[in-house]
C-alpha cells in the first residue's frame, strides 16, 4: 500500500562558506530539495535559493546522489532553446522511518520512505493492556516491518511509538490512563529489543503531524482532535507545531458534576465523548462481527446503521461535550479548522452539527470568523503514519548522519 503525503518546505538559514561547514551547506541544500513541492528542483534553482556557488552545489548534489538520498528526473526544456533542465527530488530508496501505534483494540506499524510515501502498513490484535505484552507485540510487528522495508531497498533508521498520554524525555510514558500505564520506559524497552533508536511521542501530536503533511501548505492553523483511544488534540499554528503543547483534551472538565474518570478527576471530556463511553451509553458493545469488535468506532457506526436511538442520543451528548471543550481551546488559540481524527473521522457525520452548535454559542469570533469542522483525511491511520514520518524526518532535517553511516 502506498499513500503520498507532503509537507510544507522547512525553513533554512543562509549559506555559510567557511571551512569545516560542509555539513551545514549540505543540510541547506537537501532541505531545499525535500521542500520542493510543485516540481523537482534544478541545480541552478538550488544555487539561487541557497546562495551557494554552482561548484559547491554540484559537489553536494553528487554526494547526495551517491548516497541514494536523491534522484535525477529526466531532462526537460523550459523553453524552446537552451540546455535541458534536470530536476532533483527525494529518492524512494534508502532511509525509511518506522511508526508504531497502540489503538483501542489493535496495534499498528507503518513504514514511510523519504518522500513520505507509505510503503508498509500492518495491523495486529492488541494483546491486553499491560506494558510487557503490548511492547512485545509491537516489537514483533516492528521486526516484520524492518524485513518488509529491506525487501524494497529501504533501511529503517529510526522508530517512533505513538502513545495515548504525556511523554518524558522522548522515551517514558508518564501516564496513559486508558492503558493503565505510569512511568513506563517504552523507548528503552523497544530499543533494546530492536537494536534501533526509538522515540516515544503523544499520539494526537503525531496524528496532527501526519494530517499536516497530507494537507500541504494551505492548512496552517488547525487543531486535530483524535478520538481513537484517549481523546487528544494536536495543534498547528502558522504552519508549525506548537512546542510544549500537552494536548490532553480528553481530561479537560466539561461537567462539574460529571462521572469519575480513569485519570482520577471527574467530569472529563473522556467520560462523555470517549468511544468506549459512547458505546457504554448505548448499552451495546456491538459484538458479533469481527470487524465491529475490532474498533469501537466501527461498532458505533454499526449501531447507527441499525437505527439504535440510544447510540444517536449518546453521539449527540458526545458532540455537545466535544463542542464545549473545543470552544474553550479555540477561544485561547486562533485556529480556523478543526479536524476530527482517529475514530471520530468515521463518525464525523453524527458529530459535526453538534460541535458547530456549541462553537457558535461559545466562541467569540464565530460571528465574523467561523471555524470549519471536518473529518481528518487520514483518520485512524494518522498517528502511526505521523510516527513514521517523525522517524524519517530526522534524516530529512539532517542527512549527515546517514552519510556518516554509509562511510563507516
From TrEMBL:
Q: Which UniProt keywords apply?
A: Kinase, Transferase
Q: Name one GO molecular function term.
A: kinase activity
**What is the superkingdom listed in this entry's lineage?**
Bacteria
Matching Pfam families: HTH_24, ROK
Presence of the UniProt keyword Kinase in the record: yes
Output the InterPro entries linked to this UniProt entry.
Answer: ATPase_NBD (IPR043129), ROK (IPR000600), WH-like_DNA-bd_sf (IPR036388), WH_DNA-bd_sf (IPR036390)
**Family that this chain belongs to:** Belongs to the ROK (NagC/XylR) family.
Protein's name in the database: Putative NBD/HSP70 family sugar kinase
Amino acid at each position: 500500500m502506498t499513500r503520498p503525503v507532503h509537507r510544507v518546505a522547512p525553513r533554512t538559514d543562509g549559506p555559510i562558506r567557511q571551512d569545516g561547514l560542509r555539513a551545514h551547506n549540505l543540510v541547506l541544500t537537501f532541505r531545499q530539495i525535500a521542500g520542493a513541492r510543485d516540481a523537482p528542483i534544478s541545480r541552478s534553482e538550488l544555487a539561487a535559493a541557497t546562495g551557494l556557488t554552482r561548484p559547491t552545489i554540484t559537489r553536494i548534489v553528487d554526494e547526495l546522489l551517491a548516497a541514494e538520498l536523491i534522484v535525477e528526473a529526466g531532462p526537460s526544456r523550459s523553453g524552446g532553446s537552451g540546455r535541458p533542465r534536470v530536476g532533483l527530488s527525494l529518492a524512494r530508496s534508502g532511509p525509511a522511518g518506522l511508526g508504531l501505534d497502540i489503538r483501542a483494540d489493535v496495534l499498528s506499524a507503518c513504514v514511510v520512505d523519504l518522500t513520505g510515501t507509505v510503503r508498509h502498513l500492518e495491523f495486529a490484535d492488541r494483546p491486553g493492556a499491560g506494558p510487557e505484552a503490548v511492547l512485545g507485540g509491537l516489537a514483533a510487528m516492528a521486526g516484520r516491518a524492518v524485513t518488509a522495508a529491506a525487501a524494497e531497498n529501504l533501511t529503517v533508521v529510526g522508530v517512533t511509538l505513538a502513545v495515548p498520554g504525556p511523554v518524558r524525555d522522548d522515551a517514558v510514558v508518564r501516564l496513559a490512563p486508558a492503558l493503565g500505564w505510569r512511568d513506563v520506559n517504552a523507548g528503552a524497552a523497544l530499543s533494546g529489543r530492536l537494536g534501533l533508536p526509538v522515540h516515544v511521542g503523544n499520539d494526537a501530536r503525531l496524528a496532527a503531524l501526519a494530517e499536516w503533511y497530507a494537507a500541504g501548505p494551505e492548512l496552517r492553523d488547525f487543531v486535530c482532535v483524535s478520538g481513537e483511544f484517549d481523546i487528544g488534540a494536536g495543534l498547528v499554528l502558522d504552519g508549525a507545531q506548537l512546542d510544549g503543547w500537552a494536548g490532553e483534551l480528553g481530561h479537560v472538565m466539561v461537567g462539574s458534576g460529571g462521572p469519575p474518570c480513569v485519570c482520577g478527576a471527574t467530569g472529563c471530556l473522556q467520560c462523555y465523548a470517549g468511544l468506549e463511553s459512547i458505546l457504554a451509553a448505548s448499552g451495546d458493545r456491538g459484538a458479533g462481527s469481527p470487524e465491529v469488535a475490532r474498533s469501537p468506532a466501527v461498532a458505533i457506526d454499526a449501531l447507527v446503521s441499525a437505527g439504535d436511538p440510544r447510540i444517536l442520543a449518546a453521539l449527540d451528548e458526545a458532540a455537545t461535550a466535544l463542542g464545549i471543550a473545543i470552544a474553550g481551546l479555540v477561544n485561547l488559540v486562533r485556529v480556523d479548522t478543526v479536524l476530527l481524527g482517529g475514530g471520530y473521522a468515521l463518525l464525523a457525520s453524527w458529530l459535526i452539527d453538534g460541535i458547530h452548535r456549541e462553537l457558535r454559542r461559545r466562541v467569540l469570533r464565530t460571528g465574523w470568523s467561523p471555524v470549519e469542522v471536518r473529518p481528518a483525511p487520514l483518520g485512524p491511520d494518522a498517528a502511526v503514519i505521523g510516527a513514521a514520518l517523525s522517524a524519517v524526518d530526522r534524516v530529512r532535517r539532517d542527512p549527515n548522519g546517514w552519510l556518516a553511516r554509509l562511510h563507516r
